[in-house]
Amino acid sequence: MSTATGNRFGTPFNAPATFRPRDPDAPAWDRVAFEAHLREQGRSYHIHHPFNVMLNTGKASPEQIRGWVANRFYYQIAIPVKDAAVLANCPDREVRREWIQRILDHDGFEIGGVKDAGGIEAWIRLGLAVGLTREEITDLRHVIPAVRFAVDAYVNFARHAPWQEAVCSSLTELFAPEIHKQRLATWPEHYGWIETTGLQYFRNRVSQARRDVEQGLAVTLDHFRSRDQQERALEILRFKLDILWAMNDAMAQRYGVNA
Ligand SMILES: O=C(O)c1cc(C(=O)O)c2c(n1)C(=O)C(=O)c1cc(C(=O)O)[nH]c1-2
Protein backbone atom coordinates (compact mmCIF):
# COMPACT_ATOMS: atom_id res chain seq x y z
CA MET A 1 0.00 0.00 0.00
CA SER A 2 1.34 3.43 -0.88
CA THR A 3 1.47 5.91 1.94
CA ALA A 4 0.47 9.52 2.38
CA THR A 5 4.14 10.48 2.38
CA GLY A 6 4.87 9.07 -1.08
CA ASN A 7 4.81 11.42 -4.02
CA ARG A 8 2.41 10.76 -6.81
CA PHE A 9 5.02 10.10 -9.48
CA GLY A 10 7.03 7.43 -7.74
CA THR A 11 10.26 9.29 -8.48
CA PRO A 12 12.37 11.28 -6.01
CA PHE A 13 12.69 14.52 -7.97
CA ASN A 14 9.06 15.54 -8.32
CA ALA A 15 6.66 17.78 -6.48
CA PRO A 16 5.45 17.07 -2.94
CA ALA A 17 2.56 14.68 -2.54
CA THR A 18 -0.98 15.91 -2.87
CA PHE A 19 -2.49 12.75 -1.46
CA ARG A 20 -5.49 13.20 0.73
CA PRO A 21 -5.26 11.09 3.90
CA ARG A 22 -6.99 7.83 3.11
CA ASP A 23 -9.16 5.62 5.15
CA PRO A 24 -7.18 2.35 5.22
CA ASP A 25 -10.41 0.40 5.62
CA ALA A 26 -12.24 1.98 2.69
CA PRO A 27 -13.61 -0.78 0.48
CA ALA A 28 -12.55 -1.04 -3.16
CA TRP A 29 -14.99 0.33 -5.72
CA ASP A 30 -16.45 -2.20 -8.13
CA ARG A 31 -15.48 -1.76 -11.78
CA VAL A 32 -18.54 0.34 -12.61
CA ALA A 33 -18.00 2.73 -9.69
CA PHE A 34 -14.25 2.94 -10.34
CA GLU A 35 -14.84 3.80 -14.01
CA ALA A 36 -17.40 6.40 -12.94
CA HIS A 37 -14.81 8.00 -10.63
CA LEU A 38 -12.29 8.08 -13.48
CA ARG A 39 -14.83 9.66 -15.85
CA GLU A 40 -15.81 12.19 -13.22
CA GLN A 41 -12.30 13.67 -13.50
CA GLY A 42 -13.36 14.99 -16.90
CA ARG A 43 -14.60 18.07 -15.09
CA SER A 44 -10.95 19.18 -15.05
CA TYR A 45 -10.31 18.45 -18.73
CA HIS A 46 -8.75 21.24 -20.79
CA ILE A 47 -11.95 21.39 -22.82
CA HIS A 48 -13.02 23.78 -20.01
CA HIS A 49 -9.86 25.90 -20.11
CA PRO A 50 -10.53 29.53 -21.15
CA PHE A 51 -7.93 29.25 -23.93
CA ASN A 52 -9.68 26.20 -25.39
CA VAL A 53 -13.11 27.77 -24.93
CA MET A 54 -11.83 30.77 -26.87
CA LEU A 55 -10.49 28.55 -29.66
CA ASN A 56 -13.69 26.56 -29.99
CA THR A 57 -16.14 29.44 -29.80
CA GLY A 58 -14.62 31.33 -32.71
CA LYS A 59 -12.97 34.09 -30.67
CA ALA A 60 -9.36 33.23 -31.47
CA SER A 61 -7.27 35.27 -33.88
CA PRO A 62 -5.19 33.56 -36.58
CA GLU A 63 -2.09 34.24 -34.43
CA GLN A 64 -3.64 32.52 -31.42
CA ILE A 65 -4.63 29.51 -33.53
CA ARG A 66 -1.16 29.32 -35.05
CA GLY A 67 0.38 29.57 -31.59
CA TRP A 68 -1.79 26.72 -30.33
CA VAL A 69 -1.05 24.46 -33.30
CA ALA A 70 2.70 25.12 -33.12
CA ASN A 71 2.83 24.44 -29.38
CA ARG A 72 0.61 21.39 -29.50
CA PHE A 73 3.00 19.95 -32.07
CA TYR A 74 5.41 19.33 -29.20
CA TYR A 75 2.73 17.15 -27.55
CA GLN A 76 2.12 15.32 -30.82
CA ILE A 77 5.75 14.34 -31.25
CA ALA A 78 6.04 13.33 -27.60
CA ILE A 79 3.13 10.88 -27.72
CA PRO A 80 4.83 8.10 -29.70
CA VAL A 81 7.98 8.53 -27.58
CA LYS A 82 5.78 8.13 -24.50
CA ASP A 83 4.12 5.07 -26.05
CA ALA A 84 7.51 3.58 -26.83
CA ALA A 85 8.38 4.02 -23.14
CA VAL A 86 5.22 2.10 -22.20
CA LEU A 87 6.20 -0.69 -24.60
CA ALA A 88 9.75 -0.76 -23.27
CA ASN A 89 8.50 -1.20 -19.71
CA CYS A 90 5.77 -3.73 -20.48
CA PRO A 91 6.57 -7.45 -20.29
CA ASP A 92 3.06 -8.46 -21.44
CA ARG A 93 3.14 -9.46 -25.11
CA GLU A 94 -0.64 -9.21 -25.55
CA VAL A 95 -0.63 -5.63 -24.31
CA ARG A 96 2.39 -4.71 -26.42
CA ARG A 97 0.91 -6.02 -29.67
CA GLU A 98 -2.09 -3.75 -29.22
CA TRP A 99 -0.18 -0.81 -27.79
CA ILE A 100 2.21 -0.65 -30.75
CA GLN A 101 -0.71 0.52 -32.90
CA ARG A 102 -0.48 3.89 -31.15
CA ILE A 103 3.02 4.46 -32.45
CA LEU A 104 1.90 3.57 -35.98
CA ASP A 105 -1.06 5.96 -35.62
CA HIS A 106 1.23 8.89 -34.91
CA ASP A 107 4.40 8.06 -36.81
CA GLY A 108 2.68 6.53 -39.84
CA PHE A 109 3.78 3.37 -41.63
CA GLU A 110 4.28 1.63 -44.94
CA ILE A 111 3.59 -2.07 -44.59
CA GLY A 112 2.90 -4.44 -47.49
CA GLY A 113 2.02 -1.61 -49.84
CA VAL A 114 -0.34 0.02 -47.34
CA LYS A 115 0.74 3.55 -46.49
CA ASP A 116 -0.38 5.99 -43.83
CA ALA A 117 1.40 9.29 -43.29
CA GLY A 118 0.35 9.24 -39.61
CA GLY A 119 -0.87 11.73 -37.04
CA ILE A 120 2.28 13.83 -36.79
CA GLU A 121 2.15 14.49 -40.52
CA ALA A 122 -1.60 15.19 -40.24
CA TRP A 123 -0.80 17.72 -37.52
CA ILE A 124 1.80 19.39 -39.76
CA ARG A 125 -0.89 19.62 -42.46
CA LEU A 126 -3.15 21.30 -39.91
CA GLY A 127 -0.28 23.71 -39.29
CA LEU A 128 0.07 24.44 -43.00
CA ALA A 129 -3.70 24.99 -43.23
CA VAL A 130 -3.57 27.63 -40.48
CA GLY A 131 -0.68 29.45 -42.17
CA LEU A 132 2.46 28.07 -40.54
CA THR A 133 5.36 26.73 -42.58
CA ARG A 134 6.52 23.15 -42.17
CA GLU A 135 9.87 24.42 -41.00
CA GLU A 136 8.58 26.66 -38.26
CA ILE A 137 6.43 23.81 -36.93
CA THR A 138 9.08 21.12 -36.96
CA ASP A 139 11.99 23.22 -35.67
CA LEU A 140 9.89 23.92 -32.55
CA ARG A 141 10.77 27.63 -32.55
CA HIS A 142 7.34 28.59 -31.19
CA VAL A 143 7.26 26.07 -28.35
CA ILE A 144 6.91 27.90 -25.03
CA PRO A 145 9.27 26.67 -22.27
CA ALA A 146 6.40 25.84 -19.90
CA VAL A 147 4.69 23.77 -22.61
CA ARG A 148 7.94 21.89 -23.15
CA PHE A 149 8.26 21.25 -19.40
CA ALA A 150 4.67 20.03 -19.12
CA VAL A 151 4.97 17.66 -22.06
CA ASP A 152 8.36 16.39 -20.92
CA ALA A 153 6.81 15.60 -17.53
CA TYR A 154 4.41 13.23 -19.27
CA VAL A 155 7.19 11.42 -21.16
CA ASN A 156 9.33 11.21 -18.02
CA PHE A 157 6.43 9.81 -16.03
CA ALA A 158 5.88 7.10 -18.64
CA ARG A 159 9.59 6.26 -18.61
CA HIS A 160 9.85 5.87 -14.86
CA ALA A 161 6.45 4.68 -13.66
CA PRO A 162 5.23 1.08 -13.75
CA TRP A 163 3.76 0.52 -17.21
CA GLN A 164 0.21 0.14 -15.86
CA GLU A 165 0.48 3.63 -14.34
CA ALA A 166 1.68 5.02 -17.67
CA VAL A 167 -1.30 3.34 -19.32
CA CYS A 168 -3.59 4.94 -16.75
CA SER A 169 -2.09 8.35 -17.48
CA SER A 170 -3.27 8.07 -21.09
CA LEU A 171 -6.89 8.00 -19.91
CA THR A 172 -7.41 11.71 -20.50
CA GLU A 173 -8.28 10.27 -23.89
CA LEU A 174 -11.61 9.32 -22.31
CA PHE A 175 -12.51 12.95 -22.83
CA ALA A 176 -10.70 13.59 -26.12
CA PRO A 177 -13.35 12.52 -28.67
CA GLU A 178 -15.57 15.31 -27.35
CA ILE A 179 -12.92 18.00 -27.81
CA HIS A 180 -12.06 16.79 -31.32
CA LYS A 181 -15.77 16.73 -32.24
CA GLN A 182 -16.14 20.23 -30.82
CA ARG A 183 -13.40 21.49 -33.14
CA LEU A 184 -14.93 19.73 -36.14
CA ALA A 185 -18.31 21.27 -35.31
CA THR A 186 -17.14 24.84 -34.69
CA TRP A 187 -13.97 25.59 -36.62
CA PRO A 188 -15.39 25.46 -40.18
CA GLU A 189 -18.13 27.87 -39.15
CA HIS A 190 -15.90 30.33 -37.27
CA TYR A 191 -12.64 30.02 -39.15
CA GLY A 192 -13.65 29.82 -42.80
CA TRP A 193 -10.10 30.79 -43.73
CA ILE A 194 -8.82 27.36 -42.60
CA GLU A 195 -9.04 24.70 -45.35
CA THR A 196 -11.27 21.96 -43.90
CA THR A 197 -8.88 19.27 -45.22
CA GLY A 198 -6.51 20.60 -42.54
CA LEU A 199 -8.90 19.27 -39.88
CA GLN A 200 -8.34 15.62 -40.86
CA TYR A 201 -6.28 14.98 -37.72
CA PHE A 202 -9.34 15.63 -35.55
CA ARG A 203 -11.51 13.35 -37.71
CA ASN A 204 -9.01 10.51 -37.40
CA ARG A 205 -8.66 10.86 -33.64
CA VAL A 206 -12.35 10.49 -32.78
CA SER A 207 -12.31 6.75 -33.53
CA GLN A 208 -8.63 6.20 -32.64
CA ALA A 209 -9.14 7.72 -29.18
CA ARG A 210 -12.18 5.51 -28.55
CA ARG A 211 -10.16 2.42 -29.40
CA ASP A 212 -7.23 3.60 -27.25
CA VAL A 213 -9.54 4.19 -24.32
CA GLU A 214 -11.03 0.71 -24.54
CA GLN A 215 -7.57 -0.78 -24.09
CA GLY A 216 -6.34 1.75 -21.51
CA LEU A 217 -9.47 1.38 -19.45
CA ALA A 218 -9.33 -2.43 -19.48
CA VAL A 219 -5.72 -2.37 -18.21
CA THR A 220 -6.57 0.21 -15.55
CA LEU A 221 -9.71 -1.52 -14.26
CA ASP A 222 -7.81 -4.83 -14.09
CA HIS A 223 -4.68 -3.51 -12.42
CA PHE A 224 -5.88 -1.00 -9.82
CA ARG A 225 -7.91 -3.29 -7.58
CA SER A 226 -7.71 -2.12 -3.97
CA ARG A 227 -9.23 1.19 -2.96
CA ASP A 228 -5.78 2.53 -2.33
CA GLN A 229 -4.66 1.60 -5.84
CA GLN A 230 -7.84 3.04 -7.29
CA GLU A 231 -7.19 6.33 -5.51
CA ARG A 232 -3.69 6.27 -6.96
CA ALA A 233 -5.17 5.82 -10.44
CA LEU A 234 -7.28 8.94 -9.88
CA GLU A 235 -4.15 10.82 -8.80
CA ILE A 236 -2.36 9.73 -11.95
CA LEU A 237 -5.25 10.85 -14.11
CA ARG A 238 -5.32 14.21 -12.31
CA PHE A 239 -1.56 14.57 -12.88
CA LYS A 240 -2.16 14.11 -16.61
CA LEU A 241 -5.11 16.50 -16.59
CA ASP A 242 -2.80 19.03 -14.93
CA ILE A 243 -0.28 18.64 -17.76
CA LEU A 244 -2.90 19.49 -20.38
CA TRP A 245 -4.24 22.34 -18.24
CA ALA A 246 -0.75 23.75 -17.66
CA MET A 247 -0.05 23.72 -21.40
CA ASN A 248 -3.16 25.83 -21.92
CA ASP A 249 -2.17 28.17 -19.07
CA ALA A 250 1.18 28.72 -20.77
CA MET A 251 -0.43 29.41 -24.13
CA ALA A 252 -3.01 31.74 -22.56
CA GLN A 253 -0.22 33.69 -20.94
CA ARG A 254 1.80 33.93 -24.17
CA TYR A 255 -0.99 34.57 -26.66
CA GLY A 256 -3.73 36.04 -24.45
CA VAL A 257 -7.38 35.06 -24.09
CA ASN A 258 -10.04 37.12 -25.85
CA ALA A 259 -13.26 37.57 -23.91
O1 LIG B 1 -6.59 17.55 -28.80
C1 LIG B 1 -6.69 17.20 -27.63
O2 LIG B 1 -7.25 17.87 -26.77
C2 LIG B 1 -6.06 15.91 -27.26
C3 LIG B 1 -5.95 15.51 -25.96
C4 LIG B 1 -5.32 14.30 -25.68
C5 LIG B 1 -5.33 13.88 -24.27
O3 LIG B 1 -6.39 13.99 -23.65
O4 LIG B 1 -4.31 13.48 -23.75
C6 LIG B 1 -4.76 13.56 -26.73
C7 LIG B 1 -4.97 14.03 -28.03
N1 LIG B 1 -5.60 15.18 -28.29
C8 LIG B 1 -4.51 13.31 -29.17
O5 LIG B 1 -4.75 13.74 -30.30
C9 LIG B 1 -3.77 12.12 -29.00
O6 LIG B 1 -3.36 11.50 -29.98
C10 LIG B 1 -3.52 11.67 -27.68
C11 LIG B 1 -2.78 10.59 -27.20
C12 LIG B 1 -2.81 10.70 -25.85
C13 LIG B 1 -2.15 9.90 -24.84
O7 LIG B 1 -2.13 10.35 -23.68
O8 LIG B 1 -1.62 8.82 -25.17
N2 LIG B 1 -3.55 11.78 -25.49
C14 LIG B 1 -4.00 12.38 -26.60
From TrEMBL:
Pathway: Cofactor biosynthesis; pyrroloquinoline quinone biosynthesis. InterPro entries: Haem_Oase-like_multi-hlx (IPR016084), PqqC (IPR011845), PqqC-like (IPR039068), Thiaminase-2/PQQC (IPR004305). Keywords: Oxidoreductase, PQQ biosynthesis. Gene3D superfamilies: Heme oxygenase-like. GO terms for molecular function: pyrroloquinoline-quinone synthase activity. It catalyses: 6-(2-amino-2-carboxyethyl)-7,8-dioxo-1,2,3,4,7,8-hexahydroquinoline-2,4-dicarboxylate + 3 O2 = pyrroloquinoline quinone + 2 H2O2 + 2 H2O + H(+). Residues 38-249 form the Thiaminase-2/PQQC domain. The keyword Zinc does not apply. It comes from the Bacteria. Belongs to the PqqC family. This is Pyrroloquinoline-quinone synthase. The lineage of its organism: Bacteria, Pseudomonadati, Pseudomonadota, Betaproteobacteria, Burkholderiales.
